[in-house]
């Protein structure tokens, strides 16, 4: 999938925060309107942010819904109905309510709002929805960190927000925060196709840089604890790396010692000449078997992967494999509790994420052996 995307954060009423430019946008009057109730479910306005409303199961027909049938669905359900009918139920949790209600939930939950405008006519929309928006990585990351709201770019509030935000291209999503005076702060506009790794990185960076300005950052005590946890992780990584080096060095010393011992064996006396050769040859053969390196492809590299829970896995790769092969191997283990992560090596410390997945293991310095640590984002 092409990854030519654009981050847009320019507009009137700009304000800067730690180098990030954001713009203030007034919500259309039709969007501000009176809070509505989602179809089929009520909402306790006093406990708006304390629970999530689950969507009503929809039995879709075997063929795509006709346009006049989609238009009959209430606005709050129009996006979710059209989206699930085409891409299925595995997607981030989109709130089926008015945008103002979703902003209220985000404010009470102390989270940013992830806004997605769906343009089914755009040719890049299907690949973005299937490969990025509905990927397991994005589903877990968005559900854990944001309040998500989606709208159809040609209908209802989705159309109103498209006219207000004026996307240059689709797919289009934005990270916004409630602001005083029926306005929202647009922190990031992301336009065009993008991979899930890149989207996670952009959203994570925006939260880290903009969160404190909106009171969404961690407390000072939490930040200090995070620093201490990061320091402990680095110390453990460095200690594990040094221990691995010591083990390899001890093996080399034992191997050299065995070679020297064989060279110093005394010559047997003539009387035992016909009794000992077989035993001596067997001992030498046995030693040779210990010293002989295991038969393997010289282009193979061994990667030792350590997980946050202390578990270790070792896997062989070709030195011409890309770093994405290591990510695919980790994902194949089915460890769903890991969440978003990157790989880290020590001495010198290097990180491998979305920007490095196209590098070969040889070019990345991970050949013929390497030790990587999985670091959660």
Automatic annotation (TrEMBL):
One Pfam family here: UBX
Domain UBX, residue spans: 296-374
Keyword field: Ubl conjugation pathway
Domain of life: Eukaryota
GO biological process assignments: ERAD pathway
UniProt keyword Amino-acid biosynthesis, yes or no: no
Organism: Punica granatum
Region: Disordered, residue numbers: 255-282
Protein transport is among the record's keywords: no
Amino acid composition bias (Basic and acidic residues), ranges on this chain: 261-279
GO molecular function: ubiquitin binding
CDD domains, per the entry: UAS (cd02958), UBX (cd01767)
GO annotation, cellular component aspect: endoplasmic reticulum
Protein name in UniProt: Plant UBX domain-containing protein 10-like
């Amino acid at each position: 999938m092409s990854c030519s995307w654009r981050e847009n954060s320019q507009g009137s009423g700009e304000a800067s925060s730690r180098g990030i430019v954001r713009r203030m946008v007034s919500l259309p009057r039709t969007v501000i309107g009176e809070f509505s109730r989602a179809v089929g479910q009520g909402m306790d306005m006093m406990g708006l942010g304390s629970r999530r409303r689950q969507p009503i199961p929809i039995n879709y027909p075997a063929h795509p819904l006709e346009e006049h049938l989609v238009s009959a669905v209430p606005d709050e359900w129009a996006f979710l109905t059209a989206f699930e009918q085409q891409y299925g139920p595995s997607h981030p949790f989109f709130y089926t309510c008015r945008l103002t209600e979703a902003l209220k939930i985000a404010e009470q939950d102390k989270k940013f709002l992830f806004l997605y405008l769906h343009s089914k006519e755009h040719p890049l929309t299907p690949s973005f929805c299937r490969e990025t928006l509905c990927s397991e990585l994005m589903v877990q990351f968005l559900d854990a960190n944001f309040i998500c709201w989606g709208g159809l770019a040609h209908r209802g509030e989705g159309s109103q927000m498209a006219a207000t935000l004026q996307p240059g291209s689709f797919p289009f999503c934005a990270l916004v925060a409630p602001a005083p005076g029926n306005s929202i702060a647009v922190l990031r506009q992301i336009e065009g196709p993008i991979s899930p790794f890149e989207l996670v990185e952009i959203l994570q960076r925006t939260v880290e840089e903009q969160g404190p300005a909106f009171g969404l950052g961690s407390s000072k005590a939490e930040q200090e604890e995070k620093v201490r946890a990061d320091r402990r992780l680095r110390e453990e990584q460095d200690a594990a790396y040094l221990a691995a080096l010591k083990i390899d060095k001890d093996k080399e010393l034992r191997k050299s010692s065995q070679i020297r011992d064989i060279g110093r064996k005394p010559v047997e006396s003539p009387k035992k000449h016909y009794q000992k050769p077989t035993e001596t040859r067997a001992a030498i053969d046995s030693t040779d078997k210990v010293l002989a390196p295991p038969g393997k492809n010289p282009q193979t590299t061994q990667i030792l992967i350590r997980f946050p829970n202390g578990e270790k896995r070792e896997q062989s790769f070709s030195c011409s494999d890309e770093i994405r092969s290591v990510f695919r191997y980790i994902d194949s283990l089915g460890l769903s509790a890991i969440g978003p992560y990157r790989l880290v090596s020590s001495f010198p410390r290097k990180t491998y994420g979305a920007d490095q997945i196209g590098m070969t293991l040889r070019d990345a310095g991970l050949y013929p052996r390497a030790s990587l640590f999985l670091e959660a984002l």
